[in-house]
Structure formats: structure tokens, C-alpha cells
Amino acid sequence: MFRPARMKKIRLLLPVDQEDRFLREIGKLGILQVKTVDKRPPGFNPDVKIDLEKNNLLSLIRRCDTILNRLPKEGIIIQLIGKSNRIDPPEEEEDEIYNNAQSILNDAENKLNKWEKLKILKLSTRKQFSLRVFSLLKNNLIVLKSVRRTDYLVILEGWVKRDDVDKLIETIPEPVKSECLISLEESVILGREVLKVRLATVVQNHSILEKALSSHGVASFSSEGGEGLETEEIEEAIDIDSIKRQTTLLKKVLLKRLEILKAKASIVRVESSICLEGWVKEKDLEKLVSTLKKSYTYELSVEDPDRWEEPPVALENPPIIRSFETITLMFGTPGYRQVDPTPILALTYAIFFGLMFADVFDGMLLLLFSLLLHRGLGSRSWEGRRLSEILITISFSSIVFGFITGEFMGGAVKIPVLWFNGFEDPMYFLWIAILLGVIQLTVGLVIGFVNELLLKRFRNAFEKLAWLMLLHGSIIVLLYYSHYLNWDFYLYSGSIIAVSGLILMAIINPRNLMEVTRLVSNVVSYTRIVAINISHAGVSRAFWLLASPLIYSGNPIVGLLAGGAILLVTHFFIVFIESFIAFAHSLRLHFVEFFSKFFEPEGNIFKPLSLAF
Amino acid sequence: MDIFTLVSVLSAIGFSGVGSMLGIAMTASVSSRMVSEKPEKFGLALVFTVLAETPVIYGLLVSLFIIMNGSSVNDFNTSISILSAGLSVGLTGLFSGLGIGIAGSAALGAVSERDELFGKSLIFTVLPESIVIYGLLVSIVIVRGAGLLGGGGIHQLDSVSAYTSLASSAIICVTGGSGYYLGKTGAKAISSLLKDEDSFGKSIVFVVLIESIAIYGLLVAILLLRGVGML
Known about the structure:
By secondary structure, chain A is an alpha+beta fold. Chain A has helices spanning 19-29, 50-70, 76-81, 94-99, 101-120, 123-139, 165-171, 174-177, 206-214, 226-237, 240-265, 285-295, 319-322, 325-331, 342-356, 360-375, 377-380, 382-405, 426-454, 458-481, 488-508, 516-525, 528-551, 558-594, and strands at 7-15, 32-35, 45-46, 142-149, 153-161, 180-187, 191-202, 218-220, 268-269, 273-281, 299-303. Among the domains of chain A are: 1-46 and 267-312, Alpha-Beta Plaits, CATH 3.30.70.120; 48-118 and 226-266, no CATH class; 141-216, Gyrase A, domain 2 (2-Layer Sandwich), CATH 3.30.1360.10.
């Protein structure tokens, strides 16, 4: 917490035949980031064939993506809240899937082409086809699609009405019946009333059978209906789910191989052994060593990163705030030797959002939506999981601040105000918001000061100190003139601190003087918390005014139901719009006001070799 | 309700409505084109389109404050103050809506190419919205000063308070013009994200410089209103 994980640089020598097994095993653990080898041992060179193999893999992955994009997508609601059926290729089948990659893709593409052709066929064509079959079946017992003959057998294919199946069987003469096979299937296009029928018998019985059937009416289906037939056959032959499943499995196998290949590209080798360098978290070093000890012949050396080196950054925070790392990383990755602001961001983000979106009921609705999102989107992607976790945390904050400010459905339910109500007392809230802003800016400047000390850039550290002096000196003077501080000592001390800060700033970098006004604008910017809170509470009150005459109309069923429905729908609207505004402006306060005081996104994120997709 | 109060309601909902309308029109036209090519991006398109609707929500809010409590206003000074409140949120809403529309269209273009730019594009799109938030803040202070918010009945304001409200409103409306340019620069910054995602931190500094003008306007407006005891 507060600092990225400590990293160790490793250098490993392995026999070449153990390379694949090692990379797969370490990939499952996800603890090692392979880097370019700094000092190549004599005779060791990179494998030149890797690029070719990589290009081949990339083209296969692109084909998978194209197929997956052509497949029908799930609806947006399903994507958001429907649990995904995660499929992973069984480890023992991975090689087989990879070896069959070309045939899997060709097969999927062929099937998709046919399926798309089916989609293009107009509905009217399909309708015409079914109307034609139905009209023929009105006056005939059977409609024959085809008659196929071999040397010994004849197969008649066609359609029959479900109700006429018994009649059809009775029609077949007794001696033929014993030598005749009948199969019946449901038709996709024609519905439940009509069945697909296949009659197979020996060639000698063909004329007897035809005669018997024609006495009850036989119609043949002309070539005009060809499209309809094709439609039916394609629809029955193509299983879209199976194409999706197979392509997804293949893509996962290919991605795993690509990851391993990327790692191999940084490894140097001679005929019998390989040499790799990489970064591993200090706490994971033991895991690496125990993996190696189990079944490898190896030579491992471990070093601390050099002063000039910039190791990859792995943020390490407790599970409850880990999801907020996404917000930090959205701005950039902090340097390895800098402070990780995520713990502070998690706290202040939740507070700002809670204050802007303070309402117990809306918070609960948001919590419900977040939990559904966690179930759906969270099961589909890592980003979705993190986003839903953030939403769950901030919806709790919204409920807590709803209780603190006594907001419940815009006054529809009266609950006691525990501290202050922003809507009733906006001026008091304004001061609270400015105070929060000053606190956050102070924390930002202190982090900046610490960062500069850690990087041993003392000149910059004094600059941050000067900003701190200016901010707090000015606030003391402002409080004196606002009559919150009455002793003249405060005026003099505040002025001295502020002016000293200005002088220090001018000495270090005179250009900073031009940015003094930005500090003022940063502080004033926090007043948006008040405006968004009041807008949220005001809109809720307006909707309550709309629904309350119905609820209090005296009609317990219609009034309550209609009023309740209006409240529910309008609050869904509020949760969608206002929570989004509060989310975006909390983000803005952190990115523009807070991070600008210290954050230098100069780090590289730790990307271990990982085979989990 | 006198003529000034009515004009105030008209300004609050009318100007902000025009801003939202233009903003939504800009983003919606890009959204519909994007969704026709990439139906899976419907959710993202909706987010950026809906964002332009916020100015009119704030305009609606101030209109409701005035309609609900302003019917008994018959004092000239109080009416002028209420007019200032309506103008503040209305005109800032107009500039804000325009800015959101311009930046939102660019953001949609960026997100249609690369999903991962959503968060960063969103920041540039919500920056013009700050302007209407500042306008709303000034409106709230004036409306409260006139007694339309927070209970206690309508206040009889003196002429100094009335003209100060009008001056504050004029300041926030004029500096609120930065909303339009925030949108334009935001759009450029979003397109630079497509070339280099790491430029975000530096681009935001430049874009926010424009917003500072509106913040100074807000600061002066608040100090003026505090000077006459409305805050």
C-alpha cells in the first residue's frame, strides 16, 4: 500500500528442452515478466524464427476475431447483467486444437457463409415456401421433395401433415411395409403441423409404393421452391453455438501460444540452453524458486534493480480498494519510486461521489444495479469486474451520505438529518466542499513533496513546499478577513507564510508565479460537489411532487400503484443520469485538481507472463 | 408571477434546452452512424449522447424552483434577481451543451476505434459540463438569497442585491462562453489521444486552462454575492 511492490531482477539459465514447460508453468502462476537480456552470455542469440511463427499466430487470431464478429451478438442487457458461460480449453486438448486450427477455421467460415446466405434470404421467400407446401398438402397425402435411387434402394423424401402420418403408414401395402423404413422429423420452417418424412425401400417395391401413394394424392415439389429447401437444410445443419464455442476455444489456445512466443522473443539461446532475464515481485521470488527446484536444472541469480533502472510497477493494495487502481492507471502508471495514490483516491473518490449522489434510495438502486453488473459484465471481463466493484463501493458511500444528509427519495421518506442537508443549507455545504478541496490539494502537495524527496530532487521538493505555504498562508488570511479568526497574529503569520511561499517559488522557478491563480481555480472547482448534490436532490424533489398527489389521492390501489410506478421510473432515470454525472465529475476532480499536484505518469505497468484469459 | 420571473423561467429552460438540443443533435448523429456500423457500441454511444442532456436538466431544476415558489413575487428587485438566476443557468447551459456536443462527437469517433479510450475521452467530454455547473451554483445562491430555496418565504431584496445578482449573472454567462471552446479544444485533445494515449496528462492541462476563466468568473460572482449578503 502507498508504494508499488518491490521488484527483483532475475537471470535464469535453463536447458533448452525445459523452456516450454517452464514458460507454461510460470505463465499459470503469472509472477514473472520476461525482459530483454541486458548482458548476453557469449554465443547466446535470439531465435530468428520466432517472428515468422508470431505472424502466423496473429493471422490465425485475426481470423478467429473476424468469425466471432460475424456471429450474432448478445443483447446489451444480457451483456450487462447476464452471467457468461466461461469456456477454457482442457490442457490435454490444447495441442490437438492448435494442430487443427486451419480446419476449425475453414469449417467455421464455410458454415458462417451458408448461415449468412440464409439470413439474406427474405422472409417473404420463406413464407412463400411454407404457403406452397401447405397448399399442396391440402389435397395430397404427401409432398415429395426428392426421389433418390441406388442399385438396391430407393429413398423418397418429402413432407406430410402430422395428422396424416397414420394414414400414410396404412397406405403402404403390407408386403412393402415389412421392407420399408420410415423416418419422421420436425421441420424448422414449417412448424409443428408438418413433419419431414423419409421412406426407404428396396428398388423392386418402388412402383408398388408409388402406386399406393398416388391413390391418396402425391404432389412433387418443383424447383421453384429450391430456395426454401436450401433455407431449411442450412438452418438445420448449422449450430451457431458450436461455431462460437470452437472458435473461442481456439482463440484462447492461440493467445496462450502468442504470450509464450512473446516471452521467447526476449530469451537468448545456444543449442543446448537458454538465458532469460525478468522482473519478479520480491514476495513472489520464493514461489519462483520452489517451482524451479521441483523439476528443473537451473542456474538462477537475483539482483536488486540498479538506481538508473525503472522496474515495472505492480500496484499492491488491499482487496477492498484494489478496483480503484483502474482509476489511477486510467491517468497513467506512477513511477516505481513514487507514491501510489490509490488508497487516498479510493477514500476521497467514495466521499466525493457519496456527497454528490447522497440519497439512501438511489444508493440502494445503484447498489442493486452494480451487483447485477458484477454478475454479468464482471463475469465477462476483468475491466467489467473492476468497474462493478468500484460501483458497489461508491453506492455504499452514497447510502451512508444519504443517511448523513437525511436524503431519501427527495424527501418522500422522512429520515433524520444526521449532520447537514445540502439542499436546505447550501452555504454550509459550500464551505464543507471548499474545506474538502483544501484537504485534498494539501494531501496532493504533500505526496508531491514526498515523491520529490524519494527521487532526491530537492529543488522540486522545495517547490511543492512553497505551494503548500502559499495555500495555507492564504487560507489563514482569508479566514481572518472572513472573521472566523479574530486574533491579529493570524493575519501576520498567514501573510508571512504566504509571502514566504511566493518568494521561495519565485527563487526556484519564476514561471510558477504565473500559475498561482490556478491554485485558486483548483480550490473553487470543488464547489461543483454542492451544485451536483443540489441538482440531484432538487430533481428527486420535483419527481416526488409529481408522484405525491397520486399517492395521497385516497385511492390505495390505483393511486399508490401509479404514484409508486412514477417514483420508481423517475428514480431509475436519476440513477442513470445523475450517478454518471457524479462519477465523471469525481473523476475530473481527481485527474485535474488532485493528480496535477504530484502525479508523473512515467512508470511502466508490470505485465507478467500470464496464460489466464 | 411577473414578467421578469416568467422571462427567468424561459431563459433557464429555453437557453439550456437549445444548448442540450444542439449537443444531442451533434452526438446523436455520430452515434447513429456508429451504431449502424458497430451495433455492439450502442451502450457507449448512449452514454456520450445522454451527457449533452445534463444542461437542460439543470435548467429544468432552476425553472422548477422558480415556478414552485416564485408565483408570489411582485417586488421589482427580487424579480430582477430571479431573472439573473434564470439567465445564469440558461446561458451557461447553452455554451455547455455546445461544448459537450463538439467534444462528445470527437469522443465517439475515438471510442469507435479504440474502446479503451472511453475513460479519457469521457473526461474531455465532461469538462464543458463544468460551465453549466458553475452557472447552476450562481443560480442556487441567487435563488436562495431571494428566498425561493431553503424555506422562510420570499425575501424583499434591495436594489444593490438585485443589480449585484444581475452583474454576477452577466459575469458567469460571459465567462461561460469558454464552454464552447472547452469543447473544441477537448475534441482536439481526444484526437491526439488516438495518436498517443500518454498525451492525456499534458493535454488536460491545456484544456483546463480555458476552464479556469469560467472558474475565475464563478469566484468573482460568488464574492460579489457574498459582498451583498446573499451568501
